[in-house]
Amino acid sequence: MNAPEGPGPSHVAPSVADPLDRTRFPVDEWRLVETRFDGSDLGTTESLFSVGNGYLGLRGNYSESRDAYQDGTFINGFHETWPISHAEEAYGFARIGQTIVNVPDPKVIRLYVDDEPLQVSVADLIEYERALDFRDGVLSRELLWRTPGGKRVSVRSTRMVPLEQRHLAVLTFEVTLLDQHASLAISSQLVNRQDEEVEQPTPEAELAGAAAGGGADPRKAEAFDRRVLLPRLHGADPETARIKLGYRTVQSGMTVGVVADHALETTSSYSMSVHSEDDLAKVIYRIAAEPGVPVRLTKTVAFHTAQTVPPRELIDRCERTLDRTREEGIARQYAAQRAWLDDFWSRADVEVPGQPALQQAIRWNLFAVLQASARAEGQGIAAKGVSGSGYGGHYFWDTEIYVMPFLTYTMPWAARNALRFRYSLLGNARHRARELSQKGALFPWRTINGHEASAYYAAGTAQYHIDADIAYALSQYVGATGDEEFLAREAVDIFVETARLWADLGFWRDESRRTFHIHGVTGPDEYTTVVNDNLYTNVLARFNLRRAARAVWELQRDDPDAYEALVRRTGLSVEEPDEWAEAAQAMSIPFDEFLGIHPQDAHFLEREMWDLENTPLEKRPLLLHYHPLVIYRFQVLKQADVVLALYLQGEEFTAEQKKADFDYYDPITTGDSTLSAVMQSVMAAEVGYHELALRYFMSALFVDLADRHNNTADGVHVASTGGVWSALVSGFGGFRDIGSAAGDQQWQIDPRLPDGWESLTYRVTLHGTRVRVTVRPTELELAVEHGTDPVPLCVRGEVVKLAPGAPVVLPLEHQGPRLEGEPPYPAGIQRADGTVISAIIPTGD
Ligand code: BGC
């Protein structure tokens, strides 16, 4: 897919135009459709057409394989470990590298007609269509192939990873000869890709690799130069056509079992043989195929994984999953998938009528977050979900700040699972805090197994804000669901241990008033590291401290038994919450009176500015072209930092401050991280830059669909897909939850419908009641779609008690403040001391 802005992501999409080639990807509101084969972006389309359920993910590889950027199959959390060797060691550096493993590939179904293999890249294809349907969750492909011998063959295949049965994948492959009879061979396989000798890639695959950047890129996964999966078991049953493989990883000791069942339906005569060895198991059908007689293969696959359970036992589990599936029949799986997704869309759909291209992209994004998270249970939500190996399959703050809002308001049980996963890491986080000489708990910046896996501490471990991000997501979840029981029983420990970390990490200083500071941390913006009083960190830490104090006080008041249990679990003293509240009250929030803005950190304004306006596109993203030290020296942002704080803690800032901060930071934000555009869109909308908000939204909406960052091949940018929901619901839809730290939570709506949009409809579930919000140019409609309890909402200051069966229509006089264009580049302005902030591009020439 084309990235019209050039080699790197631009500051913001130059226009709101649709960037897709619609002759290849026609508009369809419910499907992503591709109408012709293109070998130049195999990796991208593999990610875009991946199917997954948050546990298991199959990339969109062609089942014939060979033409592939990465023949990937991923299971959330299934990883190998390796010792991180730092060239220069230091105390407390991350030691255990963790990398997601490519588990045995169940997608392979090869077809031979009169001994000629079907290989999509070289085949004479009369017809081609590939489609991912968001309503039934099925990826389908239809080919009409003219074989080298001149026979026309119709090949229809489908692939589905059930949302209800998370261990399962269902694949079908149907071949029909259109003209004359022929001998067919279908070889259905399970292949260990992780350890396979690298096959000679096809020219298309090689191109795709080069297009995706090839060489060193911190965003890719580490490669292993040794065996990762130790074969423990293989088998193939000639009676039942059941094949199996079992492995244990060399270092992490994790185990995986995979079993595939086959059913062939045809009235043509055929024979079947099976074969298995360490890294391959297959079933081969030889069919004397008659024209017009379909040959239909159904392949059902089950995966089970574990920390230590022997592969033999996992294979038993797989067999039970498959036996049950066989008894129930495949039709049931399709029906269940459809029902699951019907329910999902009724909870989560966001509608933009009259804009089918946007509608399609919106649904693709929402479907992608769903595929990354729905059945993650017991694991985190990786930066690429289960769609690719980028970032090694690691979990970051992406989950809490970008994905959790979507889950909390549309699929609260999945949000709860994600929080429970963090809770399960608390022991490690306590240990890690001790390692960093702190009290409380410090969650790892990036991890799979709970240990810090970031080898680069400056942009990794130093991002202490992960603690506050988790606390924020927990608070948001409890506020939205009312799940106080989860809070009281376990999750409150997260508040306590994170608050302790902040209280201990920060320190007091006696100035004109006593202030509390946090030094030596990195905020979300990774282009400035290890700073004092990063605004985002301090603002979120303040929230964390207050929210924790409130949670403890309320527990003490309302549930003394739970409070006692908390004290026993954590050794909490009565004074601690008071200390937290005091630290929060005195938190230092950098503010420059002269410029009227919040500096990103205590020394931010002392730096000169990177001349972003004149930096050539081939030097973007900066992280791939400049040493970190060069970047760190300047005022230049990888991603929203202050601006993100303005959104998450909006109630703490005035409208004037928000505008001033947005104006200052927006032009110096590169957007080199896909986590940026969505948040810039939200805040541009709030402060009044309507057209700019829409452009940021379009950038984000097509991050993957148009491969804007040139690395969609490594997997979907899940944070951005979640952020797309936030941009729609919070940005244009104007939805906010505020006040949870102080105990006066309120759901507010102050919309910003983009010009030219006829309406925007979204849904949020509040304490079990699903509310539908429709924004139109001159009115706002609120209705309870599901549930029996009334919901209080505050629309532009007016409180509405929304009751079931009684929709409310409110007039809207405007769509918020309106500012034209975009804020000017701020270089050349004066600092408070009279010096000028100059704009520079470091070249060394
Ligand atoms: C961003 C981080 C993010 C990570 C994983 C990086 O490029 O700067 O904020 O957590 O990607 O998505």
TrEMBL record:
Entries under InterPro entries matching the protein: 6-hairpin_glycosidase_sf, 6hp_glycosidase-like_sf, Gal_mutarotase_sf_dom, GH65_N, Glyco_hydro_65_C, Glyco_hydro_65_M, Glyco_hydro_65_N, Malt_Pase/Glycosyl_Hdrlase
The Glycoside hydrolase family 65 central catalytic domain, residue ranges: 363-725
Taxonomic path: Bacteria, Bacillati, Actinomycetota, Actinomycetes, Propionibacteriales
UniProt GO molecular function: carbohydrate binding; hydrolase activity, hydrolyzing O-glycosyl compounds; maltose phosphorylase activity
GO biological process: one example: carbohydrate metabolic process
Name used for this protein in its record: Maltose phosphorylase
Record keywords, A-Z: Glycosidase, Glycosyltransferase, Hydrolase, Transferase
Domain Glycoside hydrolase family 65 N-terminal: 34-306
Gene3D superfamilies referenced in this protein's UniProt entry, alphabetically: 1.50.10.10, Glycoside hydrolase, family 65, N-terminal domain, Maltose phosphorylase, domain 3
